[in-house]
Amino acid sequence: MSWPFVDYDTDLWMRIPDSWEGTPWKGPKEWGRYMSEAWWGDSEFEPSRKDLKGLATTLQACAERFPGSHPGFDVYLHLPDPRLMPLPVYVASVEADGDREETLRELVTTDDPDLVERPIVEDFTTEALGTGLRSLRYAQTEEDRTIIACVRYAWRSEEAGCDVLVIAAAPDPRRVLGAMDDIDAFVGRISVTAGPG
Known about the structure:
5 helices, alpha+beta, single chain, about 30% strand, TATA-Binding Protein
């Protein structure tokens, strides 16, 4: 099955490796340290040792935990400013199945008993993927009633025989809403091509 390719802006985004084999890093700790130095180095700020270590530790934790939230998805982190908390965005494709409209609506809404209100669902069009759906939804955790904001995108690629799904979520609605323009631009750079045979 075909897999989505993201031509992402490396000033705003980083991708968590799905395997450390073949990379310059032994694992999340080395990767986090390297990316922290790179991100602070490219910023306009002069980091302290504490700043460098803090971001390195945060990125290590992201690399260790976020892939487990949506197994099988590629994980990208939105980080326009090294002082912010990284925002995970998950990208995957699933085999196209069933009616296009029904399936895409299911992918962006899903049944969630913890929803605070009905999701806002609208058409979303990109040059590479055509018109799909985007939803914005708010849920509340059972444990401490924290509000989680989530935006989901879904498209069907008839040529590639797959549905493309993108998920961004965080327990900080302002962080998600503040990143919406960048997330929209990010998904606008996703393409998928039909695989062989």
